[in-house]
């Protein structure tokens, strides 16, 4: 395959991954009758079961390469990148909306680069100042829009939603950095198998999460609501966690890291598209400004980062 062909195929895979991952942001709106804990438990029970089924034929060979230390790492990575992240994300969507949440979480590449700027040979932090300034301005725009659009008396809820979105960004950033470093150590385990092992660890946590999810804030639901909940949980597990990860792994193998980082924009843009279609509206001026600043922030960050080999990229599994 020619270099141009590899690039086109890699971009296509990155676009497909982003389109599927964007569904994650819409899921809490589709199942608004359920709590974030219930949404996380349902999604990750399904993901864990699917990951275990895919690993079952090769379980002995794959598990032989994983020791106690690695399982501990997989457990905390699962909390940061899946369980905690999705509880915060679902809370942010339900309290602040899809647009606000997706824009805030869309600053992930910049956040990961800032954390990585402390590593040896990293881009000096001063070169990231333009990117950080645009990112901060984007958050201010989306925060202002969120508060302005809030119903009278619900401004506090909008602020809590914004805080949850920032918490989700922090949680996923910690996962991305930690997971990237573990992947660098685990050269004998494929990125796909590491992603499935993370799914198994997440599924085990979801079993424990199911008990408080059934008790905290739970209410009675009609049969149709349960059917929709099960369909959304299974659909997100299959399309976002399994198929989306497969496209992302393929893109990661075909593209240089600096270009792979830009592919994350597709997730945010598709999440925004789905959100606006669901709400049947056009973006506001403040939302457009926030989106423009987010895109400019990420692209500027990648440009500043280009002289290096790239920020350790660990997104073999998205939330």
Strand content: under 5%
SSE string, helix = H, strand = E? Answer: HHHHHHHHHHHHH
* Total of domains: 1
C-alpha termini separation: 32 Å
Helix content: over 70%
Biggest beta sheet attributes: none
Computed CA radius of gyration, to the nearest angstrom: 19 Å
Uncertain stretches: 307-319
Written overview of the protein:
This protein has helices at residues 3-21, 23-30, 36-55, 59-63, 68-96, 98-105, 108-116, 129-149, 155-185, 191-215, 223-254, 257-279, 285-305. By secondary structure, it is mainly alpha-helical. It has one domain. Helix 2 packs parallel to helix 12. The longest helix is centred in the last third of the chain and has 32 residues, at 223-254. Residues 307-319 have low confidence and may be disordered.
Draw up the topology in text:
Layout: H1 3-21, H2 23-30, H3 36-55, H4 59-63, H5 68-96, H6 98-105, H7 108-116, H8 129-149, H9 155-185, H10 191-215, H11 223-254, H12 257-279, H13 285-305
Helix pairs in contact: 1-11, 1-12, 2-5, 2-11, 2-12, 3-5, 3-10, 3-11, 5-6, 5-9, 5-10, 6-8, 6-9, 6-12, 6-13, 7-9, 8-9, 8-13, 10-11, 12-13
Concise account of the structure shown:
The chain is mainly alpha-helical and 319 residues long. 79% of the residues lie in helices and 0% in strands. The protein has helices spanning 3-21, 23-30, 36-55, 59-63, 68-96, 98-105, 108-116, 129-149, 155-185, 191-215, 223-254, 257-279, 285-305.
